[in-house]
Amino acid sequence: MQKAAGHRLAKGSDASRARLSEQLRLIRQRRGLTLRDVAERTGLAISTLSKVEHDQMSLTYDKLVQLAHGLEIGFAELFAPPEHPTMVTARRSITRNGDGVLQRTANYEYRYLCTELADKRMVPVVTRIKSHTIQEFGPLVSHAGEEFIYVLEGAITVHTVFYEPVLLHRGDSIYLDSTMGHAYLAAGQEDALVLAVCSSDESNFDKRLQAIIDNRSKGETAAEPVKLPRGAKRRPAGSDPVPGTDPAR
């Protein structure tokens, strides 16, 4: 009897920890916050928050209250059940070859697809990359969410704050955290063409993303050398940060 009760308790504890992991990540991404942002608001260590998000640890009651207070949410929201759509939206959009909304900057030529759908969680963009050096490109960009890049033509070099630059050829792809400073450059003499899919739970993310790009294009300047946060070290292009660690340390 005692073994069975202990087993049920352990299963319940695991379920609560998983729910906390899911909710913390969801709340943070919806607000466009990094782990560092959450740490500054709550007073909890970045490594602790990372372990919670990776379902590697839970928090004591006092720490949970501290987390909820810092995020300005109710305690119960940390363990709220995931939202499920109550009905099929039947949303659909088709973009024919050559259609879409075109946006040009000094570095890129963006063609936004499926633009008649409002408040999309994913923003698909076919992007022609025109910059060939980081000096041409300017400061690295960052925004809420995550993104996937697939090389359609040519080759690109991907620069990010926490990794060494990586070269991608036609058919190669990369998936990364968009809150990390990043830049895509054409690697050869010719321009490169990629399919980019940016994703975020932010409301009206598609419009916010276009506004960020538009504002940047108006103030593009020559780049300074890419700088890491104090104490940070670059990782090889193919490596990932270890869960539960602060990549800026």
Which geometry do the CA atoms define?
globular
Largest beta-sheet details? 6 strands, antiparallel
Unreliable segments (pLDDT under 50, ≥5 consecutive)? Answer: 1-12, 220-229, 241-249
Total E-strand runs: 9
Secondary-structure element order, as H and E?
Answer: HHHHEEEHEEEEEEH
Spatial order of the strands in the main sheet?
A: 1-2-3-9-4-7
What is the residue-averaged pLDDT?
78
Helix/strand-derived category reads alpha+beta
Please count the helical segments.
Answer: 6
Straight-line distance between termini: 47 Å
* Helix proportion range: 25-40%
Cα gyration radius (Å): 21 Å
Summarize this, please?
It is built from 6 helices and 9 strands.
Explain the layout of strands and helices.
Blueprint (H helix, E strand, L loop, with lengths): L1 H29 L4 H8 L3 H8 L7 H11 L29 E4 L3 E5 L9 E8 L4 H4 L8 E8 L1 E6 L5 E4 L3 E5 L4 E5 L5 E8 L5 H14 L31
Antiparallel strand pairs: 1-2, 2-3, 3-9, 4-7, 4-9, 5-6, 5-8
Keywords:
249 residues, alpha+beta, six-stranded antiparallel β-sheet, disordered N terminus
Plain-language structure description:
The protein is of the alpha+beta class. It is built from six helices and nine strands. Strands 1-2-3-9-4-7 form a six-stranded antiparallel β-sheet, covered by helices on one side. It has a three-stranded antiparallel β-sheet with strand order 6-5-8, with no helix packed on it. A hairpin with a 5-residue loop joins strand 5 (about 155-160) and strand 6. The termini are far apart. About 20% of the residues are buried.
